Amino acid sequence: MKKYIPQGTITALVTPFQKGGAVDFEALKDLIEFQIQGGVDAIVVCGSTGESATLTINDKIAIFKKSIEYAGGKIPIIAGTGSNETEGTLNLSTIAFNLGVTGLLLVAPYYNKPTQDGLYEHFKLVADNVDIPVIIYNVPGRTGVNISAETQLKLAKTCKNIVATKEASGNFEQMMKIIKDAPEGFNLLSGDDIFTLPIIAFGGKGVVSVISNYAPKQFSEMVKNAMNGIFDKARKIHYELMELMELNFIESNPIPVKYALALMKKIDPVYRLPLLEMTKKNKDIFKKAMQNAGLI
């Protein structure tokens, strides 16, 4: 069987909640179908945008199971199984593998602030013990630690099932070093929507996206055009969506993106503490941008 190597538009899906705070599986089913119809290439569940930090282990297992069921083999489901604890990461990754997910997204261990050697050993242990494609997730703004180009390349060359990195460091020089020296079968994906176009221009292979939650057709079209070298069309869509890409972080992600989906009547705008609904002032700004983009 051909090894899965992620590329294109991969949506970092929100986790919809009912008003009482339980996972809303009916809304999850509809969101996954919306993504499939929108033409995205894969879906990540239980990542940062999926509020993984406030999901229980049982929540995550249920979301993995139901997402696979709802996708029905039409689209790869990638499970966010990373944490700041290696044994726990391995255990959840093994469960996700046994459930049948297509791949894993492993965030750098947060709060611990491990050394580069510690990061290497963490990812290597999981990759060596779970025979499934793995995406490294480098997001220093959330984890407090950067996975260096050298460490990512060492992992890519040592572990054949580490097939990609989601790079959200904002460090273009680091990303270019990774792309330049990456082994065959290892892709760099943008971890920031707004940087997707330039990252593809210098050799990236796609994005793990927030905006594709509510604009899957438009954003995946931009990515496809860029991947095919049609940069005039890609650039046009990029600038049409640029205001929303910026506003997705007017408050902590995923507060704005869940508000966008609520405006589209796809979910209730429910969060788990310590996240709260967006302020009235920011809601008004965001709603106007959604209207300007023709999304509502």
How would you describe this structure to a colleague?
Helix 2 packs parallel to helix 3 and helix 9 crosses helix 10. The chain is globular and about 50 Å long. The protein has an eight-stranded parallel sheet with strand order 7-6-5-4-3-2-1-8. The chain is of the alpha/beta class. It has one domain: Aldolase class I (TIM Barrel, Alpha-Beta Barrel). 47% of the residues lie in helices and 12% in strands. The mean pLDDT is 97. The chain is built from twelve helices and eight strands.
In short, what is this structure?
This protein has about 300 residues and is an alpha/beta fold.
As for the CATH topology, it is TIM Barrel
Look at the helices and sheets and give the structural class.
alpha/beta
Indicate the proportion of strand residues: 5-15%
* Spatial arrangement of strands, main beta sheet: 7-6-5-4-3-2-1-8
CATH superfamily: Aldolase class I
Largest sheet: 8 strands, parallel
Q: Uncertain regions: pLDDT < 50 for 5+ in a row?
A: none
- The succession of helices and strands, N to C, reads EHEHEHEHEHHEHEHEHHHH
Count of β-strands: 8
Rg calculated over all Cα atoms: 18 Å
Shape: globular
Mean pLDDT: 97
Give the number of domains: 1
CATH architecture: Alpha-Beta Barrel
CATH class category name: Alpha Beta
Number of contiguous helices: 12
